[in-house]
From TrEMBL:
The lineage of its organism: Bacteria, Pseudomonadati, Pseudomonadota, Alphaproteobacteria, Rhodobacterales. The keyword NAD applies. This is 2-hydroxymuconic semialdehyde dehydrogenase. It comes from Celeribacter ethanolicus. The keyword Oxidoreductase applies. One of its GO terms (molecular function) is oxidoreductase activity, acting on the aldehyde or oxo group of donors, NAD or NADP as acceptor. CDD domains: ALDH_F8_HMSADH. Keywords: NAD, Oxidoreductase.
């Protein structure tokens, strides 16, 4: 069997089914059919992976000069690119996302995450201070960055390779060892990365993978493991809360990248073509399953009707279909379970008084795709600001559009949420853009763009959207311990 048919754990440089004897099915979101099995890890598999990671920290990996470590991570990126088609196939099998999207975003960014952080560690300075002392000779202080240790990486299913390597890249660049627990929905690209690590010669135990679920399974056992030094998590806010409780024992540090209910703000002086194109992407890319996606769109009243009508036209042009079809602009949701959740919000929106501009139901698909998790891309208007569909993250291909009259009003509306991840502001008046961007309570504010990422910059959310920032030097701060050395002269 190939790794796509049977996903195994990767522990201490070896693929293993583990000893739990438990497996679960990997189901295609496109057809609903079984495409393989995944071995489920429990306490023994987690123990073995943590032990391997701890040993590797004190082995060859721990003594590698930084430049050599960075070279190895470049080699990992090169090997991902060399096996681009394998990664593409695995990612598409798991997620059903359009091939164009995975080949332009998920796989290249998955590889880039190793290069960018390998280069960064070599170039980021640490602080140093001269201190005056009464004897006049003084003292010099300087910081030394050291690996934090064994890092647990808990990743989600929406951008599986990209979001996992976004954490593994800086963790390894900083000299740590990792155990990844990928989402149970998307085990394949993480498994394949194990092969890459062996090909490149990354020492055994540096990169480990244990498959499984969250509660009473690999995720819970890993995050509760006392020999894990820090936990980096991307996923739902309520899962983050549970993981924080585990991390409290032993005062282990957490980095949390969680949910969002992001606002798009469209001013009447925007470039309408750009605002429509950007909002179509931000609301519907990856079938709306992007944490940074726009589920609330606020449009200045003079252009409200035109905006709604043009966004609707954009949605009418979208073609749902299988990944390989070059015409496909949208794939299915990740699973039947997630489809039920999204469909329940479509129903709720109508009960809460929404007007359905387009969509709101299940699309008619050809027979071979009928078992997939398909939903229609949907636009609502007319909801009141306290509706649950305005307050709760839906994580599907849906947005609600509401009019606003003043800058002050729209800032208040955008901030009236428990989340604080991202916003996209559309205006040709750059003074206004700067003024508004800094007043939105989010970690990421885009002006006249969306998801345009410079990996050297901070990434993360405020309020219920997360704790801490990763990206650039911020990632290195989480993944390393700083020792201040004070030398009396
Ligand atoms: P999820 O929280 O259900 O699962 C994420 C991971 O946590 C999975 O690997 C899962 O198995 C694991 N997990 C679940 N319960 C656990 C537990 N008790 N202990 C340990 N691990 C556990 O999230 P999801 O459905 O995979 O992803 C979608 C969510 O992720 C959305 O809310 C989205 O906004 C968020 N997200 C945030 C970002 C960001 O950068 N802020 C990026 C992508 C996705």
């Amino acid at each position: 069997m190939t790794f796509t048919q049977e996903a195994m754990h990767f522990i201490n440089g070896e693929f293993t089914p583990g000893t739990s004897g438990r497996t679960f099915d990997n189901i295609s979101p496109v057809t609903g059919r079984k495409i393989g099995i995944v071995h489920e890890g429990l306490q023994p598999e987690v123990d073995a992976a943590v032990k391997a990671a701890r040993a590797a920290l004190h082995g060859e990996w721990g003594y590698l000069p930084m430049a050599h470590r960075a070279e190895m991570l470049h080699a990992v990126a090169d090997e991902i690119n060399r096996r681009f088609d394998d990664f593409l196939e695995a990612e598409i099998l798991d997620t059903g996302k359009p091939k164009g999207l995975a080949s332009h975003v998920d796989i290249p960014r998955g590889a880039a995450n190793f290069k960018i952080f390998a280069d960064l560690v070599k170039n980021v300075p640490t602080e140093s201070f001269m201190l005056d002392t009464p004897d006049g000779f003084g003292a010099v202080n300087y910081g030394v960055r050291k690996p934090k240790g064994v890092i647990a990486v808990i990743s989600p299913w929406n951008l599986p390779l990209l979001l996992m390597t976004w954490k593994v890249g800086p963790a390894l660049a900083s000299g740590n060892t990792v155990i990844v627990k990928p989402s149970e929905e998307t085990p394949l690209t993480t498994t394949l990365l194990g092969e890459v690590m062996n090909t490149v010669g990354i020492p055994k135990g540096v990169f480990n993978v244990v498959h499984g679920f969250g509660p009473d399974s690999a995720g819970a056992y890993l995050t509760a493991h006392p020999d894990v030094d820090a936990i980096t998590f991307t996923g739902e806010t309520r899962t983050g809360e549970i993981i924080m409780q585990s991390a409290a024992k032993g005062l282990r540090q957490v980095s949390m990248e969680c949910g969002g209910k992001n606002a798009g703000i469209v001013f009447a002086d925007c470039d309408m073509d750009k605002a429509i194109e950007g909002t179509l992407r931000s609301a519907f890319a990856n079938c709306g399953q992007v944490c940074l996606g726009t589920e609330r769109v606020y449009v200045e009243r003079p252009i409200f009707d035109e905006f709604v009508s043009r966004l609707k036209q954009g949605v009418e042009m979208m073609k749902l279909g299988p990944s390989e079809d070059p015409e496909t602009s949208m794939g299915p949701l990740i699973s039947q379970e997630h489809k039920s959740k999204v469909m329940s919000y479509y129903k709720l929106a109508v009960e809460e008084g929404a007007t359905v501009v387009i969509g709101g139901g299940e699309p008619e698909m050809p027979d071979e795709l009928k078992g997939g998790a398909w939903v229609e891309p949907t636009i609502f208007t007319g909801l009141s600001e306290d509706a649950r569909c305005i307050k709760e993250e839906i994580f599907g291909p849906v947005c609600h559009i509401a009019p606003f009259d003043t800058e002050e009003e729209v800032i208040k509306l955008a901030n009236d949420t428990k989340y604080g991840l991202a916003t996209a502001i559309w205006t040709e008046n750059l003074t206004k853009a700067h003024r508004v961007a800094r007043q939105i309570d989010v970690g990421l504010a885009w002006v006249n763009s969306w998801f345009l990422r410079d990996l050297r910059t901070a990434f993360g959310g405020s309020k219920h959207s997360g704790i801490g920032r990763e990206g650039g030097v911020h990632g290195l701060e989480f993944y390393s311990e700083l020792t201040n050395v004070c030398v009396k002269l």
